Amino acid sequence: MIKKILFSTLIAICTLSTAFAQTKTKESGKELNDPDNLASQYFSQVMGVAVDATSNLKLYKFIYEWIGTPYSYGGNTKRGIDCSAFTKAIYDKVFNTTIRRNSRDIFSMVDPLSKEDLKEGDLVFFKIKSRSISHVGIYLGDNRFAHASSSRGVVISNLNEPYYSRYFYKGGRVLESFKKEFTVE
Length: 185
Description:
alpha+beta; signal; endopeptidase fold (from Nostoc punctiforme); 6-stranded antiparallel sheet; thiol protease; Murein_DD/LD_carboxypeptidase
């Protein structure tokens, strides 16, 4: 509830600052009353992720709306969701791309990447206490990723946390051939 109030307040501030701005003040080349800049600052502070002018605000808004949703194996609603359903929902709604439903099948759709080559929107895969891929999330930058954790629900975590560092397998970027094959226009 508090999260929704804060988000509504942000939207109201963005709208008011745009509507009532008489002059535009510039700081470091960015307009202070720019709604996208305000949203970037908000998500940077609330989510602990460096969100800048090149970031996909739609991605951060989507994740913010799901933060705290409980984990439910096989779930795909706000009452409960698992990691692959959360990742699939992001790709559907934010990137207008349909990906497969489980983490192993999703991995078959990507060009594997090392941790150093990850960019915002790439996928991160884990082999948690398993020989095969068992977990997936969305990379946000600064070693942070959003995912549906089995113990904490939808959260933002750090790849450098000992737990995730231990089980990290690879990153991945969805191949263009799959984007065309699965995307509905």
